[in-house]
Amino acid sequence: MPEMDISKKLSRWSLEEARQVGHVLVIRCGLCNITRRFLPSDILQLRKNTTLNRLRFVCQECNKSSYIDVNVYYPSAGDIGRLPIRRLVGMRDVRMPVWRDETL
To answer: String of b and e for 23-45 (b: at least 16 CB within 10 Å)?
Structure first.
């Protein structure tokens, strides 16, 4: 039996459904060959609930988004305690100056 197309699978799953089931999001940059894993609950704190194929990420190493591949992974019992996952620690506000032109 042929494998199911991953894009069709991701178009049916939302972040909330992936969180309820216990999936892990696997984000891979094809240019840097770096793989990062995130929990859907952490991503839901940053973005609204959307389907997984609409998620857009930027690589933190090369700052490109065109080489990013998103997949889902269901961790097995052997992965517990060994699978590195990036967790959201906090949010930081960036202070930017706002300028206005005036005449003397």
So the answer is: bbbebbbeeeeeebbbbbebbbe
Q: Token pair of 70, please?
A: 């998103």
72 exposure class (CB count in 10 Å sphere: 0-12, 13-18, 19+): middle
How large is the C-alpha radius of gyration of the chain?
18
Q: Phi/psi of residue 82, each to 5°?
A: -125, -20
Q: Assess contact for 49 and 19: CB atoms under 8 A.
A: no
Is the pTM above the cut of 0.85?
no
pLDDT at 32: 92
69-74 average pLDDT score: 89
